[in-house]
Amino acid sequence: MRAATATLALILAALAGAASAAEPGLGESVYKRWCVHCHSSGRGNPGTESLRVKYKDSLPAVLLDRTDLSPQAIALFVRQGVLSMPPFRKTEITDAELAALADYMASKYVKP
Amino acid sequence: MTDRRSFLQAAAAAAAAMPAASSLAAAAAAGAQAATPPPAPRPATSATAPSRLPPGVSRADFNKVLTAWRGTVGGDWVFTSDADVALYRDAYSPYWDEPEERVASAAVAPQTLEQVQAVVRVANQYRVPLYAISTGRNLAYGGSAPAYSGSVVLDLKRMNRVLEVSERNAYALVEPGVNYLDLYEHITRANLDVWIDPPDPGWGSVIGNALDGGGGWTASPFRDHFGSHCGMEVVLANGEVVRTGMGALPNSKSWQHNKWGYGPWVDGLFRQGNMGVVTKMGFYLMPRPEAMQSATVQVTRTEDAVPLIDTLNLLESQHVVNGSTQLFGAGASWSVQIPIYGPEKVVRAQMEYCKDKFAKIANSRFTEGELVRTPLDAATLARVRKVNFGVPDLSTFAMLGRNAQNPSPPGGHIGFSPIIPRTGEALLEYSKFYTDNLPAVSERGTLRFQGPVYMTNWDRTLVAMIMFPIGKDKIMNAKMRAAFEKWVQLAAERGWGEYRTPAVFQDLVANTYSYNNRSLTRMRETIKDALDPNGILSPGRYGVWPKHLRKA
Fold first, then answer.
1. What DSSP character marks residue B505?
2. Which pLDDT does position A14 carry in this prediction?
3. Directed axis angle between helix B474-493 and helix B424-441, to 10°?
4. Checking CA distances to A30, which of A15, A36, B28, B432 falls within 20 to 30 Å?
5. DSSP H helical segments within B205-318, as ranges?
6. How far, in Å, CA of B340 to CA of B291, rounded?
7. CA–CA distances in Å: residue B416 to residues B204, B377, B409, B480, B540
8. Residue A66's domain spans which residues?
9. Domain count, chain A
10. Rounded to a whole number, what is the distance in Å from the CA of B34 to chain A's nearest CA?
């Protein structure tokens, strides 16, 4: 529990140091490079299939359709990994790219 | 766009807003709401002193090394904080969170050949062990974690240039950070009429997969990734650069045309090896075939496995069947898929020839599949297995991850992959061997393995793979490790050896290759000591240790 919280704090600290104004389209570009292969709609997307089995019909299986995932939550999953998905290193997704990616993927996020 | 201030102010609320079913998110949420705040994490800056030192290296010396590296690659690309170094853990480690887990002390990520040379020279001066990775996506075989704990990961992901793709001569020259998705995108954007040969997960490095002995899913010879390479550039432990094959000729015009060059061929030293850091590599590409058609041949008598495999072998050796065949079955029922790539008229003729050959096996059933013409339209691509058509993806994780048939997988896996002879007799012997030993090795069925899966996708090779689920449960992981070791020993007693294995089992498997008092291993050690006298490059990789780390 503490480890997860510490990781979240580190991620947030790193993101705070990232570029404040992300390059337009950067988030979508990072999503298409790293995420779309598992998390888009359609056949053969293991991330989408995994979330469909996990949530059944209670939440959308396609991540971009989710309204409950904040940018912070997305950043945590990217840097921590989950189940079969390993974490992504900074040579793959930099902190600036992660901030832009998290914003892009949380575009439908509704703050509770 | 979320502005940075609101992004940070939302921190505490973020975790609470995460779905309750997410264990990660729930953990973060609970931590954020705890009455006693957790200890402040060490700031994740590039200048953070590492918690762990490389073995045998003083903190003072390591600081000098890190300072030199920061000067070479920039402070942002030397990783020493616990959080950054943790990103290099093997997510599928069979020793996750146990003392034996192989972990790094730091990571350094050069972007150019000259930076690699400089990093290696400093490491050699201070005897800092490095562990080179291309993209670190070698999941199930160790991932990005070093074989020798405390090594610094030399992360080559930033060397991500596709240097050349020749459509006329059908080859590519790439750097280690280029993965199959990148190369496919490059070729597609340039509208070149050549195919790559993707392995199961497309996010792996083209160079890394070849160097680890990986294979793919299109036609022979392209799917033997090391076998279809042509030319290397390698940085040795002293920082010197070597180009192999025709690349040794200054101003060579044929580096990616002829792999042999002149004199003894040395490229094999760098396959599953630790003799140098590969910084460029050429690969043969497949001119887009006009069509592909597959067929399935089924037999239903145990003894017919023998002519089934013999016929398959003949057709492959004649280059009539050139696709990645797949073998399924157990007991009396066996089937093989035989994809054929080429011009449509030729494919149809070859298929007729195959049909005639397999018809000689009484009671066999031959079922022709659809002939698929290329290039594939989007609708066709959406219903076929993409990797068979040179299109990389990650769909393999749908089988290995959570799915309707397996709703609670542990997350990771490792594979036991012995090579057995490509004969029906060996197939039946292995099948019986597996069935006979399964009750004891699986603790009377309480350990669930997947397999055996018979991989026939390399020419002349039959790999009888068993998959072991690996997760974060230490007790279950210990049982899986014990079972893995038992399979290795039992198979070696029958003369079956693994072609590739996770880093933590590489010594175990290397020791099974013990002919003539381990003469092959000893020869490799002699070469290792000559090329890398300080033993700094990937110590222990595939069981090759430098002199100062070898056990008596």
1. G
2. 61
3. 140
4. B28
5. 206-212, 305-317
6. 8
7. 20, 37, 18, 11, 19
8. 2-105
9. 1
10. 9
Nearest chain B alpha carbon to A72:
B14
Q: What is the mean pLDDT of each run of 10 residues along chain B (552 residues)?
A: 33 34 37 36 62 97 98 98 97 97 98 98 98 95 95 98 98 98 98 97 96 96 97 98 98 97 98 98 98 98 97 97 94 96 98 98 97 96 95 90 90 94 96 96 91 88 94 96 97 97 96 98 98 98 97 76
- B301 is annotated as an active-site residue: no
Of B335, B285, B275, B290, which is closest to residue B309 (Cα–Cα)? B335
| Contact status, residue B194 vs residue B240, Cβ threshold 8 Å | no
Q: Domain for residue B211, yes or no?
A: yes
CA B449/CA B445 separation, integer angstroms: 9
Averaged pLDDT score across all residues of chain B: 91
**Do residue B180 and residue B276 come from a single domain?**
yes
Say whether both B79 and B102 belong to one domain: yes
- State the complex-level ipTM: 0.90
| pTM for the whole structure | 0.91
Q: How many domains does chain B have?
A: 6
DSSP string across B126-181: HT--EEEESSS--TTTTTTS-SSTTPEEEE-TT---EEEEETTTTEEEE-TT-BHH
- What are the pLDDT digits (tens) for B363-380? 999 999 999 999 999 999
Q: Are B364 and B357 contacting, i.e. CB atoms less than 8 angstroms apart?
A: no
Q: Is A110 part of a structural domain of the chain?
A: no
**Do residues B389 and B381 touch, judged by C-beta distance below 8 A?**
yes
- Three-class SS state of B430: helix
**Mean pLDDT to the nearest integer, A25-40:** 96
Short-list B341, B288, B338, CA closest to B315: B338
Provide the shortest C-alpha distance from residue B32 to chain A (in Å): 6
User: Could you tell me if residue A61 is inside a domain?
Assistant: yes
What's B288's DSSP letter?
P
CA distance B133 to B208: 7
Q: At what angle do helices B305-317 and B424-441 cross, to 10 degrees?
A: 120
Contacts of B287 (CB under 8 A, 6+ apart): B170, B193, B194, B195
Looking at chain B from residue 41 to 100, which residues have their Cβ under 8 Å from any Cβ of chain A?
41, 43-44, 77, 79, 81, 83-84, 86-88, 91-92
Tokens of B267: 């490229």
> H-helix or E-strand containing B293?
strand B291-299
Please confirm, yes or no, whether B499 is among the known catalytic residues: yes
CATH number of the domain bearing residue A10: 1.10.760.10
Token reading at B235: 């940085």
Put residue A61 in one of left, alpha, beta given phi > 0 → left and psi -120 to 50 → alpha. Answer: alpha
Residue written as token pair 């290039």: B375
Separation of alpha carbons A22 and B2, rounded Å: 10
Chain A partners of B204 at a C-beta cutoff of 8 Å?
A: none
